[in-house]
């Protein structure tokens, strides 16, 4: 087979897993530099949902949105108020919470990817 055609859902899930892997590295770097003077925590911006074509659209301003989302439907980023005397702005509890949530989101995407592949195998008769 010279080339493969990947369904949009699988491509979106693969991109999501790659993003979560990269984000885990950034969060781990934040934790590793928790005692570095002047270090500020970083995070990756979420990939635009429009790239995959699988985003949630806000079609009416009266519709409910996520609790952490603004009126535009994008998550709001809040800065940390905690800072040590040496200028370090890494809050370990916050970074560990983000890392745990990121790991769960990656696991969910990986599970969906695996289940989708299983459904495709069943559909083509190669169980």
TrEMBL record:
Entry annotated with the keyword Lipid metabolism: no
Keyword Methyltransferase among record annotations: no
Pfam families the record matches: Flg_bb_rod
Stretches the record annotates as Disordered: 68-87
Subcellular location: Bacterial flagellum basal body
Alphabetized UniProt keyword annotations: Cell projection, Cilium, Flagellum
UniProt feature, compositional bias: Basic and acidic residues: 74-85
Residue ranges of domain Flagellar basal body rod protein N-terminal in the record: 21-40
Name of this chain's protein: Flagellar basal body protein
């Amino acid at each position: 087979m010279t080339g493969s055609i990947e369904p949009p859902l699988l491509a979106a899930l693969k991109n999501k897993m790659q993003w979560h892997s990269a984000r885990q590295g950034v969060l781990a770097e934040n934790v590793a530099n928790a005692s570095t003077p002047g270090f500020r925590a970083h995070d990756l911006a979420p990939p635009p949902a429009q790239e995959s074509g699988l985003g949630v659209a806000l079609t009416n301003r009266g519709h409910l949105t996520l609790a952490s989302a603004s009126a535009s439907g994008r998550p709001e980023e809040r800065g940390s108020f905690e800072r040590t005397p040496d200028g370090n702005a890494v809050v370990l509890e916050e970074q560990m919470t983000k890392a745990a949530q990121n790991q769960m989101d990656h696991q969910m995407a990986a599970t969906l990817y695996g289940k989708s592949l299983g459904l495709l195998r069943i559909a083509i008769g190669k169980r």
